[in-house]
Amino acid sequence: MSFEDATQFWNERFDNAEFIFGKEPNEYLVEKTQQYLKPGQKVLCIADGEGRNGVWLAKQGMQVIGFDASDIALAKAKQFAKENQVEVEYSFSDTDSFAWHANTYDAVIGIFIQFADPAMRERIFQKTYEALKPGGIFILQGYTPKQLEYKTGGPSLIEHLYTEELIRQLAKGLDIRDLTIYEKELSEGARHTGMSALLGLVAQKP
């Protein structure tokens, strides 16, 4: 889907007073941030939506850069950052139009970025690899194919979902620190609620 189509699709979803994925940060992100990241680090949030993860990271003392293809979501994210008295540098881009700079980030965060089809997913992993500083950390959370049975969030297209084999293949240039397939009750706003089939990845650039 083109950038314009993506913007229209996500704007229709986000054009709502409530935060569709809630205001709390993703649990896997919280746990892994506490394990692997430090205040003062420069962190990029891919498709940060309404800002629940980027704002939380900024509150932990990180220097956060984020982007999203929905300008409506970004307006909510900027307001959310302001309410939390933190700065997040947001830009209106999709994963292909964003200016990824090489060797720039201590961490790159991808939480439920499963709008990406296989070709885009490969580009995201490639760009993430390039954008991380040596020693930088990539934290990814997504749904596995079993999620199609639960129907509690995420895409309905199997090729957008993650298997362990697929993620190992995509992360081949990175050192895998954690790769977990698990099931857990999620409560992340109206869009991600209920028992969920999940994959979590922490990978480090050598």
Question: What is the total domain count?
Answer: 1
N to C succession of SSEs: HHEHEHEEHEHHEE
Percent helix range: 25-40%
Tell me the CATH superfamily. Vaccinia Virus protein VP39
Secondary structural class: alpha/beta
CATH topology: Rossmann fold
Topology:
Layout: H1 3-14, H2 27-36, E1 42-45, H3 52-59, E2 63-68, H4 71-83, E3 88-92, E4 105-111, H5 118-131, E5 132-143, H6 147-150, H7 164-170, E6 175-188, E7 192-204
Parallel strand pairs: 1-2, 1-4, 2-3, 4-5
Antiparallel strand pairs: 5-7, 6-7
Sum up the structure in keywords.
alpha/beta, seven-stranded mixed β-sheet, Rossmann fold, 7 helices, 206 residues, single chain
Report what the structure shows.
The chain is 33% helix and 30% strand. The longest helix has 14 residues. The model has no long low-confidence stretch (mean pLDDT 97). The protein has one domain: Vaccinia Virus protein VP39 (Rossmann fold). The protein has 206 residues and is α/β, with parallel strands linked by helices.
Concise summary:
This protein is an alpha/beta fold. It is built from seven helices and seven strands; from the N terminus they run H-H-E-H-E-H-E-E-H-E-H-H-E-E.
